[in-house]
């Protein structure tokens, strides 16, 4: 699932490539991606892209005083087609590349292809007057990538929450932009269990969590900047210390990284670093 560092890099790339370009065609190849029924992507034709921004894990492209909100969901992404590139010469289209479900073409024959690699459609496009007219964007909590995000903001998110900490970190209404992978990385850095309830954290643990949240997210944003968008997923995977590393050695203490079933997904953690040696139930 794309998370805020990768979506930020994608937004910056698309901003550089598309701002000032005129949209000449919009082709929706899968009708289910269009989430607004009173406004369609065809309205974009003839308009100029004026801005590209990120809201949590969402993209927003401004055009003609309106916006197209792009929910990437679990498997959505984008690829860029340069002017004059025949399909067979586009590297991202080789092999088992995910299909394009919507394409925006520009006046120089370049294009954005929005893709979805899942077995069900998670990509969504909404044509709106304001980015926050997209319901999921309107509900977003504070964004740890924002330099204004403070310890007090995090404390307010945690206060009174009888909910497991990993779930709180991934809850977009509480904190925008963090998903399964970075929540594992944050908790490992903070030396906190994924299943501890947020409300039980001490002041010292909340401080450690704040440093881990902001450090992990902001460092990842900086690290992903400038990486070609078709290489961002690989860069993210390569940077992980514990997420996706089940059975490997913890980079801090060399204990084995373990896996525990978690809310229909899983969490990777180090028992020595995070749970005082206690092995959590589930897969190991």
Describe the protein:
The chain is α+β, with helices and mostly antiparallel strands and 284 residues long. It has two domains: 4-138, Alpha-Beta Barrel (N-terminal domain of MutM-like DNA repair proteins), CATH 3.20.190; 151-274, Helicase, Ruva Protein, domain 3. Helices cover 27% and strands 21% of the residues. It contains eight helices and ten strands. The protein has helices at residues 4-18, 135-138, 151-158, 165-170, 180-190, 203-224, 232-239, 271-274, and strands at 23-28, 49-55, 58-63, 66-71, 76-81, 100-106, 111-116, 124-128, 257-262, 265-270. A four-stranded antiparallel beta sheet has the order 1-6-7-5, with helices on one face. Strands 2-3-4-8 form a four-stranded antiparallel beta sheet, covered by helices on one side. Strand 9 (257-262) and strand 10 form a beta hairpin. Helix 5 (180-190) packs across helix 6 (203-224). It starts with a helix and ends in a 10-residue tail after the last helix.
């Amino acid at each position: 699932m794309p998370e805020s560092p990768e979506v930020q890099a994608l937004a910056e790339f698309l901003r550089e490539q598309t701002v000032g370009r005129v949209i000449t065609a919009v082709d929706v190849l899968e009708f289910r991606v269009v989430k607004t029924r009173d406004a369609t992507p065809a309205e974009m034709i003839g308009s100029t892209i004026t801005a590209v921004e990120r809201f949590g894990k969402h993209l927003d492209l401004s055009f003609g005083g309106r916006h197209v909100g792009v929910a990437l969901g679990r498997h959505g992404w984008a690829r860029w087609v340069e002017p004059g590139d025949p399909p067979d010469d586009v590297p991202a289209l080789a092999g088992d590349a995910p299909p394009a479900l919507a394409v925006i073409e520009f006046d120089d024959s370049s294009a954005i292809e929005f893709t979805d690699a899942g077995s069900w459609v998670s990509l969504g496009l909404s044509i709106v007057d304001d980015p926050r007219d997209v319901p999921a964007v309107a509900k977003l909590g504070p964004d740890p990538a924002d330099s204004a995000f403070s310890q007090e903001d995090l404390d307010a998110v945690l206060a009174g929450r009888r909910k497991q900490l990993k779930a709180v970190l991934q809850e977009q209404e509480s904190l925008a932009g963090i998903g399964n992978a970075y929540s594992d990385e944050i908790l490992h850095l903070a030396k906190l269990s994924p299943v501890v309830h947020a409300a039980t954290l001490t002041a010292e643990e909340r401080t450690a969590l704040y440093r881990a949240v902001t450090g992990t997210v902001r460092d990842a944003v900086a690290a992903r900047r400038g990486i070609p968008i078709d290489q961002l997923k690989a860069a993210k995977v390569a940077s992980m210390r514990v997420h996706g590393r089940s059975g490997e050695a913890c980079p801090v203490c060399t204990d084995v990284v373990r896996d525990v079933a978690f809310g229909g997904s899983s969490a990777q953690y180090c028992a020595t670093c995070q749970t005082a040696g206690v092995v959590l139930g589930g897969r190991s």
